[in-house]
Amino acid sequence: MKPSDIKLTAEHPELRVKEIARGIVRRGLKPVEPKTSVSLRIDADVLEWFKSQGEGYQTRMNAVLRAYKEAAA
Q1: d(CA 43, CA 40)
Q2: CA–CA separation, 54 vs 47, rounded Å?
Q3: pLDDT at 6
Q4: CB-CB contact of 52 with 46 (8 Å)
Q5: Residue ranges of the domains in the chain?
Q6: Which phi and psi (to 5°) does residue 34 adopt?
Q7: What are the residues whose beta carbons fall under 8 Å from the beta carbon of 20, sequence distance 6 or more?
Q8: Nearest to 60 by CA among 70, 72, 50, 47
């Protein structure tokens, strides 16, 4: 199939690479439980460092907290 054979519509728009990769990674895995929204006070320099690492900083912060939880168990 050539790219010119693909018909894009409002119902089926073009996917970004990130969306395609997420779908491939999730295939065959258990469903992800929903996250809980919280309000958390974090030192400004810590937050800015996580944000400076790029998109997904909240997910990375969650991973650090999870690693700490698992190490403490």
Answers
A1: 10
A2: 12
A3: 72
A4: no
A5: 3-33+40-72
A6: -65, 150
A7: none
A8: 50
